[in-house]
Design brief:
heterodimer, A: mainly alpha, flat, B: alpha+beta
Chain lengths: ~190, ~675
């Protein structure tokens, strides 16, 4: 099975090392991610007012009306600052997320939502791309079937391109050597 | 003063003269080719050079008006003021509508001159139509400037000072982002012109493919840089802790880039296997039309967004041009359809050809979904009277999985051989990447315990492993055969097959970027605090202590800086100085000076939101792996440059000839 994998020198390709190396690099990167995640929750010293995570979570779902393209959560604008304060007040009153969001929808319309509701005709926002993708996929599969039906010379492992270490990466002289090698050893 | 007036009038005159030369070039090139008069075509070329000269003159005149701060010119009055620094007086050139149109037109005419000169001999028979198409595009922009948005429009009086450029745009990121995007957009015109020339003239041999390929790669590279600078600017200036907001203006910049990416992949199949000619032409047309669409969306103000500072009445003009170019291009394509048959057919579903086709499918699906997201608010307002916002949640949910599938394909594609794959080949080529995929999936499932980030990281690792394997295989093959050192083998490997290994470097850049996006998308932390002097707050492993506030004033701007000491893991680390800047003339619109402390693991990102007697309020973000996005951007641009680099020196020419002679050989073998 591996006899054609171009063992042209005495040194075999160090796959194990390469695989481990790749894993090591990835492991290090991922350790960074995991490390950040495993940190303790943000904490504050006594005299500090920490803005509520819950407030940010709600504000992130709302579009800042005066600075389009940004959510209420981190916008610098006056209005967004006031809206954040309103969210905090309502949370303090014991209102839940849905009620607070509804409060803003009633005042500003559904334009305030960063993610429009999936009801009625608005559902087409989601349906259209999915439908388009599925249709295109079916079309491509159908076309591929149709095209592959026309094959005259069936392609097999013997007449396809061999290893990637072929023409594209080797000099002409070297390529000749490879061809010679293939002929001698692989018949 | 009178000298200034003369220069501006000179520019205005040049702009008025240019459309006549453009029209002359269109007519003589067309008629010259029809009647077989070479002298006419030559004359058309000279007219194209004249258009270029006139536009360069007009641009220099506008620059002169900016540098001398001639506020009697309305566009100069709008976009600069006495206190504005020299750098941003330069960049104000493309800060508004009229100037960016002029920038488009002058860039197009310069690129057109280069393309025509460089390809005059090699693609002589396409040239008349290349001139026709490019000059039609130039004519459109010239008419737009003359009739709708003239950069040289004078005011009836001489204002003492200008209004100035929006302070958000007065940032180094913005000095590069818009011109690069505009350059990327406009350079898509060149491959489009070659493709259309092939269709119009009926000369549908391989000639147009070679010409369009390198120009699309160049345009793609420039657009990539434009997008990266845009993301970098957003991260450094807007202060919401992110770099990409799926803002309509960002989206319309992304979609021509995706179309060009699809083209760059499908053209490989066209070149190597003489297949998919029609499809490749469709992608050339699509890339251009989407570039015009991008300019249209940004410049017409159809959709207001963070970036759409400029709005004017050019919308309908663009709309008509967009519609016409789409219809006429597709008509030309349908007309020549019988001559664009494939020389070969497809052998198997599991081959590199079909890999490229699935890549195209996914890229187009992302383009389609993104266009739906951009246009849906307009459609819903028009037909239902309901105003809605399509924000990041939609794109994350719809484009996210498609992009993940593309990443998986990026790992699988290079492993698939042309035509078909056997079981033995599959095992040999896929075993290591799939092992890495499985290992990362299993290990991370225990550590992170959430589906999407784990899957995304595993898929990205799969692609990374494929790239490592491809490079390792190539390098060790060279070493084994030629006895070269590791370094030499690596350098020669890339240098001898630039298209392939440059492309792999682009893939590597995208792998880095994907790691950065996954890290910051799923694992960023954000908190808001209000601190009095001496108090401290903690986020992640950082502890921030507010020390004091400083105020300073220079010409044209006032700066408030807060000093904070940062401890990391309990040990003193760095001192940061986030603050706010207020520019003269924009007192209501202070800009944040965001403190960003980057490491390879994560960024600490601090934005001051306000202050009063009690202390200072600020947001702090910990954004993991963001540096990898910029690092990946560098690798991507480098890879693009290598893939594009023309085969020029005598030594390389031999390599190219060899590479071309290989194809029939391989095919001969294939048919034995």
């Amino acid at each position: 099975m591996t006899k054609r994998s171009l063992p042209l020198s005495n040194q075999p390709v160090p796959w194990v090392t390469i695989g481990l190396l790749a894993l090591l690099i990835l492991g290090l990167t991922l350790a960074g991610v995991a490390l950040v995640r495993d940190n303790p929750e943000a904490s504050t010293t006594s005299a500090i007012v920490a803005l509520d995570q819950q407030m940010i979570r709600i504000a992130e779902q709302l579009q800042c009306p005066v600075c389009e393209g940004q959510s209420v959560a981190f916008s610098n604008s006056q209005l967004a600052t006031e809206m954040r304060r309103t969210i905090e007040d309502k949370l303090a009153e014991g209102k839940n997320d849905a009620a607070i969001i509804q409060y803003f929808v009633d005042r500003y319309g559904i334009k305030i939502l960063r993610e429009p509701p999936r009801t009625g005709l608005l559902a087409w926002l989601w349906i259209t791309p999915v439908l388009g993708f599925v249709l295109a996929l079916l079309g491509l599969l159908w076309k591929l079937r149709q095209m592959s039906g026309r094959t005259i010379v069936p392609a097999t492992a013997d007449n396809t391109e061999e290893t990637p270490a072929d023409s594209e990466i080797l000099d002409p002289a070297l390529r000749h050597l490879v061809a010679q090698y293939d002929k001698d050893f692989l018949g | 003063m009178s000298a200034t007036f003369d220069v501006v009038n000179l520019g205005a005159g040049a702009l008025q003269l240019a459309p006549f030369f453009a029209l002359y070039a269109i007519l003589t090139a067309w008629l010259g080719d029809r009647s077989g008069r070479a002298a006419w075509v030559l004359s058309a070329r000279n007219a194209l050079y004249a258009v270029c000269g006139l536009l360069v003159l007009a641009s220099l005149a506008l620059l002169y008006a900016f540098l001398t701060k001639d506020y009697s010119v309305f566009y100069v009055y709008q976009n600069t003021r006495d206190s504005q620094s020299l750098l941003y007086t330069w960049t104000a050139f493309w800060g508004g509508n009229a100037g960016s149109l002029l920038f488009w037109a002058v860039g197009l005419s310069i690129f057109a001159s280069i393309a025509v000169t460089a390809n005059w001999r090699s693609h002589y028979r396409l040239m008349p139509y290349v001139i026709v198409v490019l000059m039609i595009i130039a004519l459109f922009f010239l008419l737009l400037m003359l009739f709708v948005s003239n950069p040289f429009r004078r005011l009836a009086f001489y204002p003492p000072d200008g209004l100035g450029l929006n302070p958000l745009l007065q940032d180094p990121g913005m000095a590069f982002h818009p011109p690069l995007l505009l350059l990327g957009y406009m350079s898509m015109s060149i491959p489009y012109a070659f493709g259309m020339a092939a269709l119009l003239s009926g000369r549908l041999d391989a000639s147009w493919i070679r010409a369009t390929r390198s120009w699309t790669l160049a345009a793609w590279g420039v657009l990539s840089m434009g997008l990266l600078f845009g993301a970098w600017w957003a991260y450094r200036v807007l202060g919401w802790g992110g770099y990409w907001g799926w803002d309509p203006v960002e989206n319309v910049a992304l979609i021509p880039w995706l179309a060009a990416t699809a083209y760059i992949h499908s053209v490989i199949v066209t070149e190597k296997r003489q297949m998919l000619k029609v499809w490749t032409l469709v992608l050339v047309i699509l890339s251009f039309v989407l570039s015009i669409f991008g300019t249209f969306i940004v410049r017409s103000g159809v959709i207001t967004s963070v970036h759409s500072f400029a709005q004017s009445a050019i919308g309908p003009w663009f709309f008509i041009f967009l519609g016409l170019s789409l219809i006429l291009s597709l008509f030309a394509l349908l007309y020549r359809l019988p001559h664009l048959g494939s020389a070969r057919s497809l052998d198997s579903m599991f081959s590199r050809e079909s890999g490229f086709l699935f890549n195209n499918l996914l890229l187009l699906a992302v383009i389609f979904a993104t266009i739906v997201g951009v246009l849906f608010p307009m459609i819903s307002e028009l037909f239902q009277g309901v105003q809605i916002t399509v924000g990041p949640p939609f794109y994350n949910q719809v484009d996210g999985p498609l992009l993940l599938a593309l990443m998986a394909l990026m790992g699988a594609g290079p492993l698939l051989p042309w035509r078909t794959i056997s079981r033995a080949q599959f095992v040999r080529r896929f075993r290591w990447p799939l092992t890495v995929f499985g290992a990362v999936l299993v290990v991370l499932s225990f550590v992170l315990r959430s589906l999407w980030p784990v899957l995304a990281l595993a898929v990205t690792s799969f692609t990374a492993a494929t790239l490592v394997q491809e490079f390792a295989q190539g390098i060790s093959a060279r070493r084994a055969l030629a006895g070269e050192s590791w370094w030499l083998a690596a350098v020669r490997l890339v240098a001898r097959a630039r298209g392939r290994y440059g492309g792999y470097l682009v893939h590597a850049g995208l792998v880095f970027i994907a790691f950065g996006i996954i890290g910051s998308q799923f694992y960023s932390q954000e908190r808001g605090f209000t601190l009095a002097a001496g108090e401290s707050a903690t986020i992640g492993r950082y502890s921030l202590t507010y020390l004091r506030m400083e105020q300073s004033r220079t010409i044209g701007q006032e700066t408030v800086t807060t000093r904070m000491a940062v401890q990391r893991n309990g040990a003193p680390w760095r001192e940061i100085a986030p603050g706010k800047r207020t520019l003269e003339g924009f007192e209501q619109q202070p800009v944040s000076d965001i403190a960003i402390e980057s490491t390879l693991v994560e960024d600490l990102y601090v934005v001051v939101t306000g202050w009063d007697d009690n202390g200072v309020s600020f947001y702090a973000f910990v954004n993991p792996l963001v540096s990898w996005i910029w690092l990946g951007g560098l690798v991507l641009v480098l890879g693009g440059l290598i893939a594009w680099w023309p085969v020029g020196h005598p030594k390389e020419v031999t390599t190219r000839v060899e590479a071309e002679s290989v194809t029939p050989l391989a095919q001969g073998a294939a048919h034995d």
